[in-house]
Amino acid sequence: MTTSSLPLQKALQAVDILNEKGIDLWLTFVRETSHGGDPILPVIYGSTGLTWPSALIITCSGQRIAIVGRLETAAARATGAYDEIIPHDTGITAPLRETLARLDPQQIAVNISKNDVLADGLSWGMYQTLLDILAPTPYAGRLVSAEGVIAALNGRKTPGEVERIRAAVKFTAQIFNESFAKIRPGMSEKQIAGLLHDQTHRRGLDYAWPVESCPAVNAGPDSPMGHSGPTDTILQRGHLLHFDFGVKVEEFCSDIQRMVYFLAPGETQAPAPVQHGFDTVLHAIQAAAAAMKPGVTGAEIDGIARSIVTGGGYPEFMHGLGHQLGRHAHDGGGMLGPRWEKYADLPDRPLEASQVYTLEPSLYVPGYGVVGLEEDVLLTEHGVEYLGEPQTTLILK
Amino acid sequence: MTTSSLPLQKALQAVDILNEKGIDLWLTFVRETSHGGDPILPVIYGSTGLTWPSALIITCSGQRIAIVGRLETAAARATGAYDEIIPHDTGITAPLRETLARLDPQQIAVNISKNDVLADGLSWGMYQTLLDILAPTPYAGRLVSAEGVIAALNGRKTPGEVERIRAAVKFTAQIFNESFAKIRPGMSEKQIAGLLHDQTHRRGLDYAWPVESCPAVNAGPDSPMGHSGPTDTILQRGHLLHFDFGVKVEEFCSDIQRMVYFLAPGETQAPAPVQHGFDTVLHAIQAAAAAMKPGVTGAEIDGIARSIVTGGGYPEFMHGLGHQLGRHAHDGGGMLGPRWEKYADLPDRPLEASQVYTLEPSLYVPGYGVVGLEEDVLLTEHGVEYLGEPQTTLILK
Description:
CATH class of the largest domain in chain A: Alpha Beta
Number of domains of chain A: 2
Distance between the termini of chain A: 38 Å
Strand content of chain A: 15-25%
Oligomer: homodimer
Strand order of the largest sheet of chain A: 4-3-2-1-5-6
Radius of gyration of chain A: 23 Å
């Protein structure tokens, strides 16, 4: 399980996808990637940055060419993904024009997309610069979106990528379990988050998203929801305790939500409204998972879970049912969500085998707190496989 | 020296700059910033991410408005930089149109630039989405580039930002000195880099750029140059040893190069070609620093250093003399460089007070290795101030 060969594996996968999509050439055009860069770059180039204007070219006939600043020639070679490295000194215009003239593509797919952040790595300025470079050539008129290529490439996880996610899910379960054993009423959300941080540090792991809200911790009915991080709210008996947490293993993420209920004095089981909330969320996840198969759209799956939650007597959750998971907790591409403006066309995309999704419906039980579970699942030709043990009973403390 | 108030300080500074530049309104428009996002976001919003389509608006009359997904309302407020937070649930179109109609700006500066990566955070897709949103309004025709606003805002460091860089430079000097005491001929470049890594970990610091080439280490004449990181090349007596290294303190970077010469048996001082190379680089830095003042262009300063190196009998260095330094080692905006295509208009920009630059000429001494020094300097109204002790004599071991 080394990362070194992943960019080559993905570059070769991209060649197959270009043939499947009928696209001659895919061009990733970047500069000064320490400022954010193109989100597909880690997939096809690894963690190494590119400083000067640089072009990564993959063709349907299998050519893999990197045009980079001369000082980054060795680093480009070290990615293992490119068999031709073309250095430039003062500007990329000449070598890029020469390379495209030699390859003479009918379509050049570039990283532009209104729908998908992962396929939209070309900035406005770099797009204009590319048009300037191509203006005197036949190629300025041959630009198309690489949206479909990128969605397929990043969505269809290789076995090595799935193993990394599975490892991250496993560590997450360990961290939850060891932390749960130490949580006591009277602790604040921040102290509880600290227990998970200790466990994460002990294992030398990174967080799946910024530590300020990783984990999110919600203790009881008055905890503020959202991405704002744990507060000084004190966990009390009679509270639901909710976690949203993930770690990174070799650059790949988990994203898991778990629920614990702290019995009030005299209680031996969760109160009926709490149990009903938990059961509703669990049922929504199980029904959605059962319906997932290649070809179904994300909106259909979202609708199944959403109607179970509303059918249980709760307002609909104001977020998508789930997103793809990989190098990022929100890994781009098609999602399980309603057709809301902010999701663009992502809920309309058909699911594909080898994609990894989260399933994360939520609801609120007045007087007790938020109920949210989140499971990570791999879609296969035959349905879904849970990446780790799902939570099917409410933990009582 | 807390980071919490920086986004507010910078947002208020932006108000002044909008007035100076005669621009009504500055709009930063982002989504899913965990995928890279807009490089100006940390400056005006801090380290918190934004998940759903979000708009940060700063006006010349001092309004500071964040339109964000509802689950990120509290996080937006916690930045301290925005006095109006407008949540949205399913899409940003309606609240963004309403807000712009209320403010009715004559110009809307957006983050698009062919020249400067730091001012080019708007992706192609988000630019098109913005045009779609504004199509039925008078505002689609009022978009201008925020390039000048961003260059001024990020370039003109506040005293708090300068103090962070100064602290990073100070730690870098400590790490160099403690590592130099332990380096022996017979060690590999990788082992030498490990000494600096140990010192960095011991201080709990982050690296200024990816650890694979932080530090860069070049031992002797056969070490490969560039951004590819330390190799198994063995340091020997009679070798020049060159470092390029930086750390981060509270998100701000240092970027320093240092030189050591390992005396060959019988030598009591550096050989004449080595000393001449060192003196030439030192002279180039000192002459460039002496000429730096507000209003001079980066190309002029670069030319001074470049002609000293070529006048010393060496080929010109195939990189710029220096770049701005801040949250990134390469911090965007105007640079000290030649008018090469890859630098766009950045070398033509006049220097401004409160900017921080590196000065890093280099040359190669056949038989001994690369000579490169790099100093970090603050430009004031009166000239430059070195942020830390510059290296003025070749260290002999």
